[in-house]
Amino acid sequence: MSQGLNRRVRLLSGVAFGAAALMAVSGAQAQTSDTTAQADDQAAEVGEIVVTGIRRSIEASISAKANNTSIVEVISAEDIGKLPDVSIAESLARLPGVTSQRLDGRSQAISIRGLGPDFTTALLNGRELVTTGDNRGVEFDQFPSELLGSVVVYKTPDSALVGQGLAGTVDLRTVRPLAYGRQAIAVNYRHEWNDIGALNSGTTDSGDRYTISYIDQFMDGTLGVALGYAHMSSPYQSERFNAWGYPTYSDGNLLTGGVKPYVMSSELERDGYMGVLEWRPNDRIHSTIDAFYSEFKNTQVLRGIEFPLAWGGSAGDCTVNVPSSLCRPAPSLRSGYTVEDGLIVAGTWDNIKGVVRNDLNKRDSNITALGWNTEFVATDDWTLGLDLSYSKVERDDIILETNAGTGRNINGALDTLGFELTDDGVTRFTSQLDYADPALIRITSAQGWGADVIPGGQVGYMNTPSIEDEIKAVRLTANRALHQSPFKSIDFGVNYSERNKSFVNDQYYIGVPGGGDLFVPSEYLLEPTDLGYLGISQVLSYDALGLVNSGLLDLVRNPNADVAAGNWEVTEKVSTAYVRANIDHELFGRPLTGNVGMQFVYTDQSSTGFSARQVGPGVSETVAVDGGVEYLEILPSSNFILEVGDDLFARFAVARTLARPRMDDMRASQNYSFNVANNIPSAQPDNQSPWSASGGNPELRPYIADVADISLEKYFANRKGYVSVAAYYKNLESYVYTRNQIVDFTGYPTGGVTPVINQGLSSRPDNGDGGWIKGVEFSVSAPFDILHPALEGFGALFSASATDSEVQPDPNEAPTTMPGLSETVMNGTVYYERYGFQSRVSARYRSDYLGEVAGFGNGRTLRSVAAETVVDAQVGYEFQSGPLEGLSILAQVNNLTDEPFKTFENGDERRTIDYQSYGRTFAVGMNYRF
Prior knowledge:
By secondary structure, this protein is mostly beta strands. It has 7 helices and 51 strands.
């Protein structure tokens, strides 16, 4: 642990030291620049760019940050079709106060100022987006970075920002062809590969990305067109270890309850299309049509073996507790094992019945987003606007598990396993059986799991959920110019949106016809999978989906109540009205800008679904249910920017913000039960009621927070660099947590029994008390030529944030920290760009946090995630003259130090739950601009 911390310090301390030195001299050497008023954001993306590549991106981002009336962070494209990183989430994770959680080695979900993805809203060109996930958190790898011109992260809202999040708002922006102002045609190509190779048979370790972008203007510069297409085929690999948990052994020491190690090979395929048509025939009319479409496919092949250990049970008649045709004894730990600090770290297990796993996860999704915006300057003082938008996502998943072993339940050979825990908490084994032998390992229910539905036990399980998410919105705006201080103009607007999200929960048990075993037919067999990193030489591998689709196995729909109650639909109808007064004033002789305003948000939310109860093994009954609530929230906001010196700005913002609850928490569906034994006259709703349930709450209201932000920003070197310090405080007025609530079960089936009461307790989400989040941020971006002209082309960016939190929704429980919050986040980048050469090394660090991961049955689980430092690097060269002018070449490496992803339990990093090693991903490519 200390070695990892020292390495992180070495990676980032050089950048931090350089940043501190630059702060000390920048005040004396910085050049002042004229103060600019708030400009059109899209024009700012390209209007002040005077250099190319990395420095172009940095300068454009600094300009947009300085000109915005909110506290923001900005990412700008290095050139058409070129954001700084291979994904949007990677770029976002480098911003001050922003970090990401890796999923399968890729940055996908982000946290802003200590709040997780559920508290962040994503917009596309200022419009709220549908999401492919089960809830509101946007999976950013759905959006090709090559098709974006910039990304703006709002840390403070204003009243005209519709769809704002409690943590922040991420606005993804495509280029505006008229603001771009010139013709551009660009093609990009990259080839990538992973250094640990293809870990599974039938998969690849290399892929390609290519993009073509076109921007042009017609009709004397009044009509602009931007078109883009981006394709990606990206493989990624991981070696994984998963522990069930760590129960207490009979001697009082902890030991491993069971393990599920496997290797994963995945391929992410995505095709994205972007189109913008912009028309400005005169100074009074400006109309823009945006279209975005993305097809996304992600296929994961997972193969490994599952060993029930301390939590493994026996089967059959084990009166005589030895392996026989009547008994499969429970796993037994031999004496002579090794204990370190209360944890059994080495020894030998007998009577182990392994389950060979050949699994597949497949996701197909597509996103459509359309928008039309028109502005009309009605008079010298009045500007009117209309915005129409539509977005929709459709997603279908296959989550397939198949099981194999030496025989069904009691039958089959048992193994003897030696084991030893490594320093990383990963268990290495030595085994006696050949798990790759197709004559020994067959499709079977080695542990007898699922015998209540499939006689003798299931040989697999298939979950095929599907999601549809749709948003329709219309917005009317008006701006009234004022001609006297303190306000230069006032904005009015109304926005109406309808969102409908549905989740269909289809799940199937897999069985062998007749209840026997199935030796894998030769046409489905593949080369064995190597698990050498765990000490297991090889395991049997086969085409799991092909075998299921062949008809050789039976699919039996899961009839249980929890599956029926997993279906839901949520509808939100949100009406938002706002007013914003824009400040242009002088305070004590210094320019004061900003805005004050208020939003009125009226929400009508509803949900439909099913309540279901288990009547008996494999038998359930359901009843359709619905519910909802209406509420009004008033959200005032203000942003003040005072230029206290030359290019020295003090910012202060206060606002009331909201975050809508998770959509699965708002579902009407629930599991319920009716206990006839409690159906007695003395039953009370909260004491021995025959009714009980667990599920969602369609009457759930949003998280509410009052926030305050203050920052001091100094820009220097003609706004090529800046240094900023900021502090913030969020007072959470409410927080959603799960508790028992009295609900009405009138009309629910009881099997013909007349209930004595119709109320009982349901464990479901509710709005509780809140808490607080507070933090400080520091960031600096500086070109080194402010120190000496010989350093022209060199520069660095560095940011660090410290965040703390406490929430106590239930006054009877101890307070906890916020999920997704890392107390310390640091980012550093050192770059060089001159004479066509460019290079960049970036590192990002986040401390331990409570993250959301996939748990049992692919459900949501919160686990402690270990601290990590991820390092990326890039080098390139651009030909600036001659026949190759316009061509640039590059080489990249992501996860340079092969940083693992690790989760653990109970604050003890030795008690590893997940350990995933992803290897390094390399890429080489070219860009050509005509």
